[in-house]
Amino acid sequence: MKVILRKKLENLGDIGDVVSVKNGYARNYLIPNNLAFIATDDAIKRIEREKMKLINQLTKEKENAESISHALSNIQLTIPMRTTEEGNLYGSITSQLIAEKLTELNFNIDKRNIIIDEPIKTLGIFDVKIKLHPDITTTIKVWVINEEEQ
Q1: Domain annotation covers residue 21
Q2: Is-contact 43 106, C-beta < 8 A?
């Protein structure tokens, strides 16, 4: 059966692709889950309209991510932590903690988008990557200071 994909599916195709699949797969999975249409002329026109809407939406999301990236590039977070006498932290700096500090600065960033290469367990200055969009990643500086020196 020939169907037109509404969403990108791994190992099958992209949005708007006309693919040939087994009847049962199309009737029992793809069509009921709104992942595909049966390939007709009307369906081809409908998927083209959906594709244009999706492209516009993705463009707006990318522009929004670029503006947030520009604003974040000037941000430097200072995080006071309790330390041992050797300068090691009690605990560590996590993506959750960084997300909370960014929320205090009115940047609503999900903790899963904050990329820390290795756990931060010492005092110092660290570069932390934030993935805002599949194509856009920015870096912020995180200053970890001794709580008592503040």
Answers
A1: yes
A2: no
3-state secondary structure labels for all residues of the chain: CEEEECCCECCCECCCCEEECCHHHHHHHHCCCCCEEECCHHHHHHHHHHHHHHHHHHHHHHHHHHHHHHHHCCCEEEEEECECCCCEEEEEECHHHHHHHHHHCCCCCCHHHEECCCCEEECEEEEEEEEEECCEEEEEEEEEEEHHHC
Domain-embedded: residue 67: no
Are residues 103 and 44 part of one domain? Answer: no
CA distances from 37 to 8, 20, 26 (A): 13, 12, 9
pTM confidence score = 0.67
CATH number of the domain enclosing 83: 3.10.430.100
112: containing domain: 73-149
Give the pLDDT confidence of 23-70 residue by residue, as tens digits: 999 999 999 999 988 988 887 888 788 888 888 998 999 999 999 999
* Total of domains in the chain: 2
